[in-house]
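Data deposition worksheet. Section B asks for the primary sequence of the deposited chain exactly as it was used as input, without tags or linkers unless they were present during the calculation. Section C holds the resulting structure in token form. Section D is free text for depositor observations; keep each observation to a single sentence. Incomplete worksheets are returned to the depositor.
Section A, Depositor: J.P.
Section B:
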Amino acid sequence: MDVTARIESVYAQIVRRNPGEAEFHQAAGEVLHSLAPALRAHPDHLDARILERLCEPERQIVFRVPWVDDLGDIHVNRGFRVEFNSALGPYKGGLRFHPSVNLGIVKFLGFEQIFKNALTGLSIGGGKGGADFDPKGRSDGEVMRFCQSFMTELHRHIGEHTDVPAGDIGVGGREIGYLFGQYKRLTNRFEAGVLTGKGVGWGGSYARTEATGYGTVHFAQEMLRTRGRQFDGCDVVISGSGNVAVYAIEKVHALGGRVVACSDSTGYVVDRGGIDLDLLKEVKEVRRARLGDYARARPGAVFSDQGSVFEVDCEIALPCATQNELTEEHAVTLVKNGVLAVAEGANMPCTPAAVEVLREAGVLFGPGKAANAGGVATSALEMRQNAARDRWTFEQTEARLAAVMTDVHALCRATAEEYGAPDDYVLGANVAGYLRVAEAMAEQGVI
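Section C:
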């Protein structure tokens, strides 16, 4: 069987064995269909069935999460943890609390995490988890009771040398605190390395909150430099207005760029003078309000609940909200408006058709597994500090983050060049991440 036929056979098996999991099919197909050059250079991987093993999680955990709201009513949610691959280290990946969470979403995220973590060069495997619980509109007491119930089941499956969860959409510092407190209570151990994203005062790392957004901008800056450009003087559009987007905005402004639009689930705001970050934080983080409130408080800003933020003219676009938000139509508009670079701050925010449009137009495109690897890299640095009972300064940690993102970019570009396509960061990221994991799997036997 030739390489292309083998890839198609593995992909068909994924679709057959994981029915209805469209996001997982998409993520697996995107990686598999880019690996043919690497597999031709390493035919032994086919004999060892690396692809088949890589696409099947080592463990999938699904569990009930009962909890009581403030009125005394009982609710039942579903929790997930997919421990996908531990060839390079303990499973590492976030927890997402959102009504859309299901097994297919968690598997897509966990699969992407394998390659993302491998690209960092740090000793972490790939995993992901979460629940179909929505923390929006819930009191602190309700969120605490949910987190305690969730951890009551999850605690038996995790540990600093086994599986180390972190935050994701719907899981921030508050939720991590409640989860860690319940883990400590159940195990009678202050095992700081079991969760990352903790408070700085009790084992957390400086710069972890900023890391994903900062890292995405660092990666985009490295891409721009290959064409003699930088953020300075550029108009930038960022989707989302949560943690990743906020700190991407902060770093873009620090590098001399101007973020002229951002979005949330209700629409998007255009502010040609540059997004006022202090006002945005007040609206989204303090008041937990919507972007319409930002526009009402900011002279010259315009809010729209029609269309997409990617319709706004810009030179650089950073999709930082959620999967499949940037469509083929949006990509065509961005190209028409002269976009230079797109870097994914979220996980798989661009549809396959959108990616194809951007690549064919010669737009620099940084896939999420490379561009947003700064978050998990800093989580691994938090684990390192926990293991040493140490704490680095913000400046030390940010410097390490910047170095990791520079190395990730260099690895992706060098790998793409080796396979004849220097600007193809999709090829570079997928092949480089795959080779690191595949070689470890081959050396560890049939596991």
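Section D:
The first strand starts at residue 59 and ends at 68.
The longest helix spans residues 394-418.
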